[in-house]
Amino acid sequence: MTAAATGRDALAETVARVAADVPGVAFLRPGLVDLFRSSARTAPPAATGRTPAGVRVSRASGSGPWEVDVQIVVHRDRHALTVARAVRDAVTAALSGSAPGAQVTVTVTNAV
After folding, report:
1. Rounded distance, CA 91 to CA 93, Å?
2. Would you state the pLDDT for residue 50?
3. Which residue pairs, CB below 8 angstroms and at least 24 apart, start in 34-38?
4. What is the pLDDT of residues 27-59, one digit of tens each?
5. Is there a contact between 50 and 11 (Cβ–Cβ < 8 Å)?
6. Which residues lie below 8 Å from residue 79, measured CB to CB, with a gap of 6+?
7. Element (H, E) at 12
8. pLDDT value at residue 47
9. Domain residue ranges in the chain
10. Which one has a higher pLDDT value, 64 or 54?
11. C-alpha to C-alpha distance for 12 and 43, rounded to whole angstroms
12. What gap in Å lies between CA 63 and CA 66, rounded to an integer?
């Protein structure tokens, strides 16, 4: 694994952890692999070599700012826009030291 991939995966793990901890977030949008996996997960995504579902971290160019896309599912009793803004602010703050200037986009995909 290259240094860039390792850095990207570390950022994705941080984003996933921070986003999931924001009040009102039910969970990150599951990926296709997660839908087929049994509910008894034995290893976290990092241990399996996968980035967390619901998080995409990339760069348009090798030295440009990171582009972070977070897809969340919110609790039905919460205001989706308020939760999305809180996630964006929390992720931006968490990445301010390791990825300053990161462009963070949050998408609410569902409510439960």
Report:
1. 5
2. 56
3. none
4. 998 755 554 555 545 444 444 455 788 999 998
5. no
6. 24
7. helix 3-20
8. 47
9. 3-37+48-111
10. 54
11. 16
12. 9
